[in-house]
Write a sequence for this structure.
């Protein structure tokens, strides 16, 4: 199913994401789309979380943020200097 949906796993599997009573595991998994995976960074943080799970930091790179912005709205690309206003009014 993961391959069918073009999903990737962001984790590298090298750092513990869960720790309790001296034991730990790499239980937390982050899935993301294949296209998004090329523009992101994923890491296990050392932040205090009030939990047995470590903080997971997921960042998108600037290029992706630019790609996701809505397109800039521009004015129409026609010239109105040659408009024959009296002629165009005869159609209304």
């Amino acid at each position: 199913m993961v391959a069918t949906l073009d999903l990737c796993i962001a984790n590298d599997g090298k750092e513990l994401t869960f720790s309790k009573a001296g034991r730990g595991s790499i239980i937390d998994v982050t899935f993301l789309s294949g296209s998004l995976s090329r523009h992101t960074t994923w890491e296990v943080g050392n932040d205090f979380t009030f939990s047995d799970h470590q903080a997971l930091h997921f960042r998108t790179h600037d290029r992706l943020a630019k790609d996701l912005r809505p397109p800039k709205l521009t004015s129409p690309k026609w010239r109105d200097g040659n408009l024959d206003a009296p002629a165009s009014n005869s159609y209304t």
Observations:
- The CA atoms of residues 60 and 66 lie 10 Å apart.
- The mean pLDDT is 78.
